[in-house]
Fold this protein.
Amino acid sequence: MKRNGHAYDAVVIGGGPAGSTAAAVLAEKGRRVAVIERDKFPRYHVGESMIPYCYFTLERLGLIEKMQQSHFPKKYSVQFVGGSGKMSTPFYFTQHLAHPAAQSWQVLRSEFDQMMLDNARDKGAEVFEETTVKELIQEDGAVCGVRAVSKSGDATEYRAPITIDASGRDALALSRNRWRVRDAYLNKIAIWTYYKGAVRDPGIDEGATTVAYLPKKGWFWYIPLPNDTVSVGVVAEKDYLYGGGTRELGEIFEREVKNNVWIDEHLAAGMRSDDYRVTGEFSYRSEYCAANGLILTGDAFAFLDPVFSSGLFLALRGGELAADAADRALSSGDFSAAQFAPYGEELCGGIEAMRKLVYAFYDHNFNFGKLIMAHPDVRPALTDCLIGHLSRDFEALFAGVAEFAKVPPALAHGRPLVGAL
Ligand SMILES: Cc1cc2nc3c(=O)[nH]c(=O)nc-3n(C[C@H](O)[C@H](O)[C@H](O)COP(=O)(O)OP(=O)(O)OC[C@H]3O[C@@H](n4cnc5c(N)ncnc54)[C@H](O)[C@@H]3O)c2cc1C
C-alpha cells in the first residue's frame, strides 16, 4: 500500500459536477486537493438539462464564456404537454428573470463533465482518474482520507483532514454506512434512449425541455442535445412500466410513446441512435450530510426525482457549499461534524422546496394552471422554485399548493452525525 502522506488539505471522491465544483472552489482558495475518479473522462452520464440558477456556480467557476461558446443548445423555457398532446404556454425564464442566467443550456454530459474536471485541474487540483475509492480511512472517530485502487491494481492512501464524498448515486459513504433513506412516495424508475433527426420546435423553443404527461401514470422528458440528438425518457412507477406483460425495455418504451401524441409525433421523424437504458431507486436522502472529517454532496447526499431538472443545480450548488464549509473547517482547524450543520440546513432547505413541488406534480388533483388561476400572486415564487432560486420564502406558494395536493412535511434527516463515526 502506497501512502500519499498528509499531502492534501481535502480529498474529493468523484469528479462529476459536484466533485469538480468542490475541487475547483477549494483549489482556487489555495487548498491542496486530490480528486479520485473511478472512470476515464470523457464518460457517459445522464442528466442533461440545466435550470437557470446553475449560472451562478458556473460564473464563480469562471466557465460562463466557455458555456456561451459551446455547442450546447440554449434553453429558454420548459414546456408541459398534456396526455392528449396539447402543449401549455411555455415557461419562459426571461419573463421572470432579467439576467443572462435566464438562458440556460442542455448539456452533453461527457463534454460538460470533462470541462468541469479540466477546470478543477487548471485551478490546481490533482486529479487521479481510473482510480476507485474502496473505503474511507477512519481514525479516532473521524474520516481522514480514503483508500483507493488504480486500474493497474495499485492501492494508495490519500490522506487529508477533510474528505468530500461526491461519488454520485453510487454514494460511497451512504452505502457503506447504510444511511440511504428512500422517499417511498417517489418510487419511480426511468427508461430512456437517444434519437437523431427527431423534430425540434422552431425558434426560441428549439432548446426547450419538454415534460409530456402520461396522465395518472408518469411523464416523458424530451431534451434537445448537440448533433441533432434528442434525449428522451419515460418516468413512472415500476409496477406500471413492467406490469404490461413485458420486461423488455424497448417494448415498454415504444408502448408508452404511443400514449402521448406529442412525443410520438416528435420522434416519428427520427431514428433511435442508442441503446435503451434504465435506472431505479429514485429519490433518497442520506441519514447524515456530514460526519467528523466528512461531507456528503451531490447525488452522494441526496437524489430527487428529475422532473424539474434539479440534479445538476443541486450538484453544482452543493459542491460549492461543501467546498466553502470545508474551507472554513481548514481555516479553523475544527473538522467536527457540528461545523457542517449550516451546510446541511441550507442544502436540505433548498431540496425541501423542490421536493414539495415534485410531490405536487405527481398528485392527480394538481396542475400548475389550476394553482395560478386560484392564486396568481404565487406565480413568481413558483417560477423561482423551478429556476433554482431556492433561498427565498415559499410559504405562500405551498399554502396555495396545499389546496390541491398533499404537501409533505420536511424530512427530519440529512443533518450531520454528531459524535464519533
Ligand atoms: C434518469 C435521470 C435523469 C436525470 N435528468 C436530469 C436532468 O435533466 N437535469 C438535471 O439537472 N439532472 C438530471 N438528473 C440528475 C443528475 O444526473 C445528477 O443529479 C448529477 O449527475 C449529480 O452529479 P454528481 O456530481 O453528484 O454525481 P455524478 O455526476 O454521478 O458523478 C459522480 C462521479 O463519482 C465517480 N465515482 C463513483 N464512485 C466512485 C468511487 N468509489 N471512487 C471514485 N469515483 C467514484 C463516478 O464515476 C462519477 O464520475 C437525472 C438523473 C437520472 C437518474
Remarks:
- The CA atoms of residues 221 and 232 lie 5 Å apart.
